[in-house]
Every structure is written in C-alpha cells, then in structure tokens.
Design a protein that fits this description.
28% of the residues lie in helices and 17% in strands. With 552 residues, the protein is an alpha/beta fold. An eight-stranded parallel beta barrel has the order 1-2-5-9-10-11-14-15. Helix 11 runs parallel beside helix 15. The chain is globular and about 75 Å long. The structure holds 6-O-alpha-D-glucopyranosyl-D-fructose and calcium ion (CA). The site of calcium ion has 6 residues, from loops.
Length: 552
C-alpha cells in the first residue's frame, strides 16, 4: 500500500453560511473564515472543506449553483477567496471545495438557455421529456419532473425544482465540468468533495419506482447508473490525474460491494468514498421524517462491512454528522447529562476507525441539536416543501414538527457558537438562522479556556493520531459484534497494536473476559481517572496500546 498525504489527513467541514460573519449581514463569509484559521490550525486539522461557495440563488444553500467560477455575493469576492487560500496554505493546511456536478441552479445560464426552445444549443444540457416518463420523486417532495411553461416540456430534478439535473450523457456537459475543475485547480485548491456523484449516470428509460421503498430506489434506480464508472474514470483521466489532489465522492446509494470500482487503487477514479449508511440508520419506512429506534450492533456492522469491503485497496471517509444530519452528540451520544463524555467518546470513534475523518464544524465543541417550536422557524427547503405537502394532504403537522426536531438538517446549520456574547459572537447583525439558545454554556471560548473540554480532547487525539500511524493505516477488526452497549475494535500493523473500547450507554458494563485487556495499557480516555480495568463507566471511551509488540 502506498502512503500519501491525503490518507493521513483529517478533514474539517465548514458550512460557510453558519461559520463566522465578518460584516454583520447575518451570513457567514470568506473573511469570517480567514479570521478563524488560527482556531482550526490550533485544533490540528489538515484539510478544510468548504460547503459550496459558488454563485447561487440559495434555494438549497449553495447546492444550486448558478455560476461555478464565481463566488457567491454573500460570501465575498474572488480576491477574498485568494486571500483565504493563501492563508490556509501559509499554515500548512489544504483547502478543498464542494463541487455539485449532478445539477445546477435553474438560474444558471445553461438552464436559462436550455429552456428557451427545443432546438437551443443548450437544450440537451438537461433532461427534457414531453411527458413525465416515470413516477420519480424528488428528495425534496413531489414529482422529480417539473413542467416548464416556456418550452412546454418537463425537466428532471432529483432535488428541488430549482436544481435541474445535468445531462452527463452530453460530452459538452462533461467538458464544462472538467473546465470548471481545471479553473479551480489552477488557482491552487487542493481538491473537491463531489456532491451526489453516483447520480450523474442515469437509467435513460427512467423505470418507475416504488415510492414506499426509498432506500431501494436510491440504490437501484437513482444511483449507480450504467455509465457511472466510465464517467468517473474519464473525469480522472481528463482532470484529476494531472494534479496531486484529494477527491471525496459523496457516495449516496453506493454499497460496499461496488466501492472499489470508484476508489480502488486500480480503478483510477476518486480517492475516497464518503459513505453514510450509518447516518440513515434510523429511517423508518416513511424515510427520514419517520425515525425509528436503531441498534448499536447494526451501526457497528456498517463500519465493519465497509472496512472489509475496501480494506487497503481503497479509502473511505469516516463521518458521524454533517450539514445534512442532526448533531452527532444528540444523535449517537447523549446531549444532556453526558454531553461532554459522550462527545469525547464519539471523537475517539471518529478519529480511530480506518478512514479519513471528517469533523463537522461545531462538533469539536459538542454543539447540539436545536429545538425550534414551529415549522415556520426552519429554513431548509426540504422542510418547507414537506410542510406544504403535509398541509395539502391534511396530515398532522405537529407530528412533522416532532420529526423535524429530531431529524432536520437545520439542527446542524445553526450558527457556530464562538462565545457567550450576543448571537454567540457569530454576527453583529441578525443571524440568518437563529442561534441555539445553549450558546452561553456551549461555545468555543469556553472550550478553549477549559483544559478538560471536548475541544482539547479532539486536539490531543488528533496529535496522537498523527504521531501514531497505526491508527491511520493499521488493520481493523470488530470485537463483540453482538453487544448493544459496547463498540470494541482492534487496530494493528507491524509496528503497534491498539484496542479501542467504547461504552455507548449510561450503564456500567463489565468487559467480557475474552477481550485481551491484559496485553494493553490505556493511552487516552474520556475520564480523568483511570477506572477499574474490566469495567467501563457511563459513556466511557478508552484507547489502549499494546504493552509490547507481538506478531500476528
Ligand atoms: O439529507 C438528505 C435528504 O434528506 C440526504 O439524502 C441528501 O440529500 C443527500 O445526502 C445528498 O446531499 C447532498 O446533495 C444535496 C444537498 O441538498 C445536500 O446538502 C448535499 O449534501 C443536493 O445537492
Ligand atoms: Ca457576512
């Protein structure tokens, strides 16, 4: 296996709108990020990933791009971008951007042209049909086919109707995307996170779906189209192979069995796959807003299956939350009595599995879900559309509110909590989305001043990981797969052996005697005093290192 800088990287995801506002308009911006580079450098992350910063009417907060080579007005100017890039590089860190190749904004020049007439040269930049060919539904409610008055046909949009899907069958579309990527690489960026790449190749007969089996639909119909691997390999050949960069493909709908076709050393595709079956683990039959209880055993198995499928031949991201999902401490931990303990336990998980960890902004200080009291307070297009749909169908919107409080994307999008001053130090104006009222207790300033904080725990563990490469490259084996409280695994290589023990419960749990504790010494943990060797306290997490090297 080849060792490279990107395999050793830890990524920090910034949702620019909610990170830091420098000019008081209530919206985070590029200058705001520049102000916080020292904070990120202190934390010890290597790569900063910015959610979309390109020109956009913001129907889906930048995931609807109207100009891929211009900076969104609210975020600043190209000059400020250049300053940001230089400042990141000056600290020895790298910067990657979010590319949204599957769809553009309907306000993009291409779509504006495309809808002019059936013979416009841009017509086949998108998918147009005289009648909806199928019952495809959009991720954001309703049919995925929208009638356009101007040219009197329907266009495809897997996301909002302001996000028409680009037609990758058209070589011109592919070339446009390659040109855009070259433009940014020539500016000196270090890579891309690629949004919903498994959707770029479509089944052109648009087969009908079973709307009650959304997961199946995503895997078998929307993702994994017949030309997917070909498109990814072409993209590599035309663009990626020419630069030393990092690419993370958001792998929606890709199953472990297909992973190596895109990220295997031999495949010549992307560097890593950003998988997230475990973050959709509590989707009920009605999907995301029909949450059901989840089991730790299933959660663990997902990681084990991915690790087994890609092994050393491919790389994956390790993700516990992002801008699309609830806060990890609220979801997989306990965000009240054991907030600090469980956030640190999750930090251990995130930083000691095999894969490239992505820390989502604010998780390093243990930010939690927010509880808005009405649906109107939510800004997310997904929630707005669903709210309308539920009203139309006469469904109980109180039930929807409850589900959104648990599952909504705005949980992770409330502004970063910098300090205890008004608006959490995020803005001098009115924040675009309300601040979580817990900011006087949970904020970065408090965390920086407290040596026992979640922040300092992350910082310490990040440094330890960097110095002990077994935690990066070593093999992984899940122990006690059936336990519903304990997440236990080994990591090892020729140099060293580790045992990681995580108690995902409030109960004190005795570690079964077949776990070889005697061979190991604790090197990191989320309790300040080392406890009884074979008992894990509430939400206790330990990283243990072998007393002596042994061969396997
Ligand atoms: O949160 C979801 C919808 O309920 C996810 O399924 C999400 O749509 C999926 O992970 C794809 O996400 C990405 O593309 C979307 C954008 O809205 C998300 O923010 C982005 O991460 C469309 O560009
Ligand atoms: Ca601003």
């Amino acid at each position: 296996m080849q060792k490279t800088w990107w395999k050793e990287a830890v990524v920090y995801q910034i949702y620019p709108r909610s990170f830091n506002d420098s000019n008081g308009d209530g919206i985070g911006d590029l200058s705001g990020i520049i102000e916080k580079i020292d904070y990120l450098h202190l934390l010890g992350v290597d790569v900063i990933w910015l959610s979309p910063i390109f020109q956009s009417p913001n129907d889906d907060n930048g995931y609807d791009v109207s100009d891929y080579c211009a900076i969104m007005n609210e975020f600043g100017t190209m000059q400020q971008f250049d300053q940001l890039l230089a400042a990141v590089h000056q600290k020895g860190m790298k910067l990657i951007l979010d590319l949204v190749p599957n769809h553009s904004s309907d306000e993009h020049e291409w779509f504006q042209q495309s809808r002019q007439s059936k013979n416009n040269p841009y017509r086949d930049y998108y998918y147009w049909q005289a009648e909806p060919p199928s019952n495809w539904v959009s991720f954001f409610s309703g049919s995925a086919w929208e009638y356009d008055e101007l040219s009197q046909e329907y266009y495809l949009h897997l996301f909002s109707k302001k996000q028409p899907d680009l037609n990758w069958e058209n070589p011109k579309v592919r070339q446009e995307m390659y040109n855009i990527m070259h433009f940014w690489f020539q500016k000196g960026i270090d890579g891309f996170r690629i949004d919903v790449f498994p959707f770029i190749s479509k089944q052109l007969d648009f087969p009908n779906i079973d709307p009650n089996q959304f997961e199946k639909t995503v895997v078998e119909v929307y993702a994994n189209g017949p030309r997917l691997q070909e498109f990814v390999q072409e993209l590599n050949k035309e663009v990626l192979a020419k630069y030393d960069v990092l690419t993370m493909g958001e792998g929606i709908g890709i199953k472990p069995s297909r992973a190596l076709e895109f990220v295997g050393e031999e495949a010549k595709g992307l560097n890593m796959l950003y998988h997230f079956d475990h973050v959709t683990i509590n989707y009920g039959s009605g999907g995301k807003y029909d949450p059901v209880p989840w089991k730790l055993s299933s959660f663990k198995q997902i990681f084990a299956d991915w690790d087994a499928a890609v092994g050393e031949d491919g790389w994956i991201n390790i993700v516990l939350d992002n801008h699309d999902f609830p806060r990890m401490v609220s979801r997989f931990g306990e965000d009240k009595k054991y907030r600090k303990k469980s956030a640190k336990l999750l930090a251990i998980l995130l930083l000691t599995l095999r894969g490239i960890p992505c820390i989502y902004q604010g998780s390093e200080i243990g930010m939690t879900n927010v509880l808005f009291n009405t649906l109107e307070e939510y800004d997310d297009v997904e929630v707005k559309n669903l709210h309308q749909e539920w009203l139309k169908k006469g469904k109980d919107t109180q039930a929807l509110l409850k589900a959104v409080q648990i599952q909504g994307r705005d949980n992770a999008r409330t502004p970063f909590q910098w300090d205890a001053t008004p608006n959490a130090g995020f803005t001098k104006g009115k924040p675009w989305l309300p601040i979580n009222p817990n900011y006087p207790q949970i904020n970065a300033e408090e965390a920086l001043n407290d040596p026992e904080s979640i922040f300092h725990f992350y910082k310490d563990l990040l440094a330890y990981r960097k110095a002990n490469k077994t935690l990066i490259y070593g093999k992984f084996e899940l122990l006690l797969p059936a336990s519903e409280q304990l997440f236990v695994y080994r990591r090892w290589d020729a140099e060293q052996r580790y045992l990681v023990l995580l108690n995902f419960s409030e109960e004190e749990i005795t570690i079964p005697s077949d776990v070889p504790l005697e061979d190991y010494l604790q090197v990191k943990g989320n309790y300040d005093k080392v406890g009884t060797r074979d008992v894990l306290r509430s939400w206790e997490g330990r990283v243990m290192c072998a007393k002596r090297k042994i061969t396997h």
